[in-house]
């Protein structure tokens, strides 16, 4: 019976395709038929046999040790998010379970939102539902009233591309973060239901999802063109919420000058 390629194998294949052989210290000559590293090259860099590495990618070997996974992660130059994702896919790091608090915003967190009067602050669930907003975030997201999920906003709302100036960058980062959440919370129906829905309805989502990249939401620069206030530039920071694992607090601070004036105008 032929082996079935596993999510672990798919992630390995996509990751090695992104590595430049020169960056891995390999000297190559002539044109290569495929991008990135060959299986044999990853095996050498990781210190495992080529046959064993091939079995991992093909799903014929499903129980790698932690040492092997760590060595492959180093060979593929994976960052911290991608390494953690690789370990979870290998079954070597437990996925987190979410309880009813996943969608409940603690009263103290709601009070904290209002402590940012000149910033757009809001709370997201693991599936990127908008759970709470302060006044500026409410006004900033007003073009999307009726759609309370940021993934659906980006890929389904007709105003998304006009409001988000760098739509491609924002959409790509959001999908990468959603894939990270899918690995972190493998049993969460909201996360995986959203992924299934978007794969069935959006070709652009499909294309980004297939590249197998993961990444957390972190510091980001976003430009909005709001229908009432005009251009607003925000620098975002993202914070994990300790009282409710999986929730994240995003705080977008206007850049000085015209952008700050536009944000103040929007708030008023």
TrEMBL record:
Gene3D superfamilies: 3.30.450.180, lambda repressor-like DNA-binding domains. SMART domains: HTH_XRE (SM00530). Residues 36-83 form the HTH cro/C1-type domain. It holds the Pfam family HTH_31. InterPro entries: Cro/C1-type_HTH (IPR001387), Lambda_DNA-bd_dom_sf (IPR010982), MLTR_LBD (IPR041413). This is Helix-turn-helix transcriptional regulator.
